[in-house]
Design a protein that fits this description.
It is a single chain. By secondary structure, the chain is α/β, with parallel strands linked by helices. It has a single domain, classed as 3-Layer(aba) Sandwich (Rossmann fold). The protein has helices at 34-42, 102-113, 142-150, 174-180, 193-197, 203-220, 232-247, and strands at 24-28, 48-53, 69-73, 88-94, 99-101, 116-133, 160-162, 183-192, 251-263. The strands form two sheets. It has a seven-stranded mixed sheet, with helices on both faces. Strand 1 (24-28), helix 1 and strand 2 (48-53) form a beta-alpha-beta unit. The two termini are 32 Å apart. The structure holds S-adenosylmethionine (SAM).
Length: 266
């Protein structure tokens, strides 16, 4: 049996298809491709793996791709080529950091389901419920908070989310979104990062620096938006202050969610 530390590296145990020697697996928003290559190493070389992403910038050089791994540029909101549809046993998504309304996410999930064979599984890992904490009495978390609050501009869209699930919601529940799109055997795991961070040295510090860098990256996109109030200088100042706050123990927590559902056989 595997534990919390393995949650990122594998599929939920319900997904037995990954043990098939001919399993075909897609990774959407594959980014730096590291996860897909790790998974490919851990499964038989007769399985096939495809990474899809909006951009090819993080793909490894083509001559280094293992023979059973390939990468394609594709926007998950757009229909996939007929040659790809209905051919995958598992479609995995991890930490898609983009902002969209809930209806757009539902549209992307419906689009990803088209990739699955009947009986195939969709697995989506993302995070929600971000919060900031002090470790030392009397220290500031103002800069980190200003960066968090800066994301409010992204939240001006009707019912927006960053990733699938920036905020916990009961209306509708994520599982019901999956069920509403026709998936069955839907299951959701939720892990608290506070618990996960106890498992690895410096994980609180590293995780907080990573998330602040990721949020600053989102804010950089606002520098060219008229009236946003975001400038390169403001971002640089906040970055330095936020890193000093993290040095004095400010940390963040989130919930990591893994939700799966299976396409009906019929
Ligand atoms: C935070 S990275 C996560 C990368 C990887 N999945 C991981 O877990 O390490 C988010 C990735 O999602 C990709 N992405 C964002 N929107 C996308 C879309 N509409 N279609 C495909 N990929 C998208 C981005 O280009 C980026 O590579």
């Amino acid at each position: 049996m595997t534990g919390l530390q393995d949650r990122n590296r594998e599929f939920l145990p319900h997904i037995e298809d990954t043990r098939k020697p001919t399993a075909k697996i897609a990774d959407i928003g594959t980014g730096s491709e590291a996860w897909l290559l790790d998974v490919a190493k851990s499964l038989p070389s007769t399985c096939q793996f495809t990474g899809f992403d909006l951009r090819s910038s993080a793909f490894p050089p083509r001559d280094t791709w293992p023979s059973n791994v390939s990468f394609n540029i594709h926007d998950m909101y757009l229909p996939f080529p007929a040659s790809e549809r209905g051919t995958y046993d598992v479609v995995a998504v991890r930490f898609i950091s983009s902002v969209a309304g809930r209806e757009e996410w539902a549209r992307s999930i419906a689009n990803l389901i088209t990739l699955l064979k009947p009986g195939g599984w969709l697995q989506w890992i993302d995070s929600c419920n971000f919060a900031l904490y002090n470790s030392m009495p009397g220290t500031s978390r103002a800069a980190c908070q200003e960066i968090y609050d800066g994301l409010d501009l992204f939240r001006d869209k009707a019912d927006p989310v960053i990733g699938l699930m920036m905020q916990e919601t009961k209306n509708p529940r994520r599982e019901d979104v999956f069920r509403g799109l026709g998936l069955v055997d839907v299951h959701e795991d939720v892990f608290s990062s506070d618990r996960l961070q106890d498992l690895e040295a410096n994980a609180r510090d590293k995780g907080t620096r990573n998330i602040i860098a990721c949020f600053l990256g989102c804010l950089e996109g606002l520098v060219t938006v008229d009236g946003s109030g975001w400038t390169a200088e403001r971002i640089e100042r906040l970055k330095e202050e936020a890193m000093r706050e993290i040095d004095s123990g400010v940390y963040h927590t989130l919930n990591q969610v893994c939700i799966i559902g299976r396409k009906c056989e019929a």
